[in-house]
Design a protein that fits this description.
mainly alpha; 328 residues; 78% helix
């Protein structure tokens, strides 16, 4: 079957090439070829193929909307390959095309700004990325290009909130996380499991600002929602549970924190295996709690050995995670 498909594709391309190397009929198969090359790790060839498609479109139609698809695909691949200046130029072209064709307030301009913001963020230009994200969200809201509860807009709000926390603007970031929660609650109901990630994000924000009491309240709500929607040994329940254990640790309610961390460990060992990263995360938390509780030293050493074994396997012997564990 594969050889038949390959022969058919080659025959099609040979026919299209016979029409001329600048024929726009070449663009669709070339785009498919570029995507395939990128998928199998031949990034340089994929980039060259995308650039060829772009030149064909430019030659045939100038700066048209048809350029957007190959430009976006090229920009995403350039980002993946760490070619940030090239990716910034590529996504700037997309933004300029949309602004020229549809005006500065069009929803497509907002989406293009989001792509450019991601490049700026990867370049370490966090404040510029924040400005682009904010403008992007405002355009999308005003243009009503997509629903406020659309997954893309939700992800954008979360990405912006994270950047705002990074630069110390936690209150602004938390307001966006609250917005995500309220929109999701309104569209899906008060006890829908999709609310849990928003509650955990909000709780994490309060943890960063050392408002442990509010973090605890939100995490208990998220845990109640999970318990109503999944079995008690479902591994998804362990994510708010572990966050709650950390919060109680910060509140010096160590016995309760230990019980929760031990429950998380038991569920994750059963779900993921004794040497999995989720188990390592639970062990790491449990060790910290038991050190404070001054538990048996030999037991703690055995737990630390398990953590190290998991971390070395996942991250390497000289990783930051391993160094931190060895310093305990």
């Amino acid at each position: 079957m594969a050889s038949v498909f390959s022969t058919s594709t080659s025959a099609t391309l040979s026919y299209l090439f016979s029409l001329g190397t600048k024929s726009s009929l070449l663009c669709t198969p070339l785009l498919g070829m570029a995507m395939a090359l990128g998928a199998i790790g031949r990034a340089n060839e994929a980039i060259e193929t995308y650039q060829r498609v772009i030149k064909i479109f430019e030659s045939a139609r100038g700066e048209s909307e048809e350029l957007v698809v190959p430009l976006c695909a090229l920009g995403n691949l350039q980002m993946k390959e760490g070619k940030m200046p090239d990716a910034e130029y590529t996504f700037s072209r997309v933004l300029n095309i949309y602004m020229k064709l549809f005006g500065e307030k069009d929803g497509r301009v907002g989406l293009a700004m989001r792509s450019l913001a991601q490049v700026k963020c990867a370049n370490g230009e966090v404040n510029k990325a924040i400005d682009l994200y904010k403008n992007s969200l405002q355009i999308l809201r005003d243009s009503k290009h997509m629903a406020v509860n659309d997954d893309v807009m939700e992800k954008m709000r979360i990405e912006l909130a994270e950047l705002l926390h990074v630069v110390g603007r936690g209150d602004e970031g938390r307001a966006l996380l609250e917005e995500c929660f309220l929109i999701s609650e309104k569209s899906k109901g008060k006890e829908h499991p999709s609310l849990v990630p928003h509650l955990v994000n909000l709780a994490t924000s309060y943890l960063r600002s050392k408002n442990y009491a509010e973090a605890e309240r939100l995490l208990r709500i998220s845990l109640q929602i999970m318990m109503k929607n999944v079995p008690p040994d479902d591994p998804s329940i362990t994510f708010p549970m572990l966050h709650l254990a950390v919060t109680l640790y910060n509140l010096h309610r160590n016995d309760e924190a230990e019980r929760l961390a031990a429950d998380v460990l038991f569920i994750r060992e059963k779900a993921f295996g004794n040497e999995s990263l989720p188990v390592g995360e639970a062990l790491d938390c449990l060790v910290s709690i038991r050190i404070r509780l001054e538990k048996d030293e030999s037991e703690l050493v055995e737990l630390l050995k398990r953590v190290l074994k998991i971390q070395e396997k996942a991250f390497g012997n000289v990783s930051e995670e391993v160094m931190d564990t060895r310093s305990i």
